[in-house]
Amino acid sequence: MKVLAFEDSVDIEALLISGGVNLSDIEFKQYWNSEDFLEKIRDYAPDILLLDHYMPPFKGLSVLKMLLDSDVERPEKIVAMSSASTANNAMLAYGADYGIVKFKLADLEIWNQS
User: Fold this and answer.
1) Cα–Cα distance measured from residue 16 to residue 27, given in angstroms and rounded to the nearest whole number
2) What does R_g of the chain's alpha carbons equal in angstroms?
3) Sheet containing 98-99: order of strands
4) Parallel/antiparallel/unpaired status of strands 48-51 and 98-99
5) pTM for the full predicted model
6) Mind listing the pLDDT tens digit for each residue in 16-50?
7) Distance between CA 2 and CA 80 in Å, rounded?
8) DSSP-assigned beta bridge partners for residue 80
């Protein structure tokens, strides 16, 4: 499984590991900003896309909207993972599959699937 995270301040891989997620079968990549996000998503072709709300130069909702309006293949699962539930709710309303406060990310059931 391939996971791609866009998050500007928290090391998401470390957050998942500290939360007990086994990453041995997961290929993980994180970008600390949202520059050229469509190309990065296209090139990496993640199964799971993790989007924070604030990650300059674009917000997670803008990334989600532009991704879904593009010809880039939609990842199987898109997770809104802002610290603000209102930002997660906005991304859920636009088409994200999950919305969770980022510090509870390891609690999602998607990590228990093979």
Assistant:
1) 13
2) 13
3) 27-31, 2-6, 48-51, 77-80, 98-99
4) unpaired
5) 0.96
6) 999 999 999 999 999 999 999 999 999 999 999 99
7) 17
8) 51, 99
